[in-house]
Specification:
With 152 residues, this protein is α/β, with parallel strands linked by helices. Helices cover 40% and strands 14% of the residues. The chain has a single domain (2-134), classed as Alpha-Beta Barrel (TIM Barrel). The model has no long low-confidence stretch (mean pLDDT 91).
Length: 152
């Protein structure tokens, strides 16, 4: 991972992204991973930060919990929020310059992660969604359209 970050840094990338995509407590526990949330996120931030040079920024990578939120699934939004906030706070402690929320296919979950990041630390946040092809209406798997997704 360090070598990959270094290659991006060496070729002049402005942003390095931590390798912490789904390393939130909910995803780790529901996928029976023997990983410590704090350690994996701090390590991800440290690896990216160590490759970054002046003028390069490190974004903490955050994605889905891997669970459907109520009413489609059993996960309460408050539970997802706490998992995202914990991960965001750890990444901030690890020295990230901001966050990127990516590859989320439920607008409700993306907004939950956005609120959690904002509450965890006063850092910039980029949020993106994953949409299906235009011939399927340009919607997420959960039916959210790009037109109805807020663009703040």
């Amino acid at each position: 991972m360090q070598a990959i970050h270094q290659q991006y840094a060496d070729c002049g990338a402005h942003l390095l992204i931590t390798n912490t995509l789904t390393m939130n407590r909910t995803y780790i526990e529901t996928h029976n991973m023997d990983i410590d949330v704090r350690q994996v996120n701090l390590a991800g931030a440290r690896l990216a930060r160590s490759a970054a040079t002046k003028g390069q920024y490190v974004l903490g990578d955050i994605s889905s919990t891997g669970q459907l939120l109520e009413p489609y699934g059993r996960m309460a939004e408050a539970t997802a929020y706490e998992a995202f906030k914990e991960q965001a706070a750890i990444l901030a402690k690890g020295g990230v310059d901001g966050y990127i929320i990516e590859t989320v296919f439920d607008l409700k979950e993306a907004l939950c992660a956005l609120r959690a990041c904002r509450d965890a630390a006063p850092l910039p946040v980029i949020a993106s969604m994953a949409f299906s092809t235009p011939n399927k209406g340009g919607r997420t798997v959960m039916g959210n359209s790009a037109k109805n997704a807020p663009g703040r």
